[in-house]
Amino acid sequence: MSTTLPTTHEALTVPEVMSALRLSRFKVYDLIRSGELRSFTIGRARRIPADALRMFIEDQHKEAA
């Protein structure tokens, strides 16, 4: 399964991650709070590094195997 991510963005918004993972806003923030998905804030804006999302997806694949 291939997840399409915006290739021109180094940092993704929560809605972009929601779309990529097909998860709810609550679940994305839950992953962030638990430390499973790295993120940072600039002011009030939460951003997820694109490589953090790729690593999260790879980890999920490894756990499922």
Structural summary, described in words:
A hairpin with a 2-residue loop joins strand 2 and strand 3. The radius of gyration is 11 Å and the shape is globular. The longest helix has 15 residues. The model has no long low-confidence stretch (mean pLDDT 91). The two termini are 13 Å apart. Helix content is 51%, strand content 15%. It has one domain. It is of the alpha+beta class and 65 residues long. It is built from 3 helices and 3 strands. It has a 3-stranded antiparallel β-sheet. This is Helix-turn-helix domain-containing protein. InterPro entries: HTH_17, SinI_DNA-bd.
Topology readout:
Layout: E1 11-12, H1 14-21, H2 25-34, E2 40-42, E3 45-49, H3 50-64
Antiparallel strand pairs: 1-3, 2-3
Radius of gyration: 11 Å
Number of domains: 1
**Helix/strand structural class:** alpha+beta
Q: Which residues form runs of ≥5 with pLDDT under 50?
A: none
Residues in helix, %:
40-55%
Summarize the main sheet. 3 strands, antiparallel
Overall form? globular
| DSSP E strands, number | 3
Q: Quaternary status of these chains?
A: single chain
Beta content? 15-25%
Q: How are the strands of the largest sheet arranged?
A: 1-3-2
Per DSSP, the total helix count is 3
Span between termini: 13 Å
Order of helices and strands: EHHEEH
- Can you give the mean pLDDT? 91
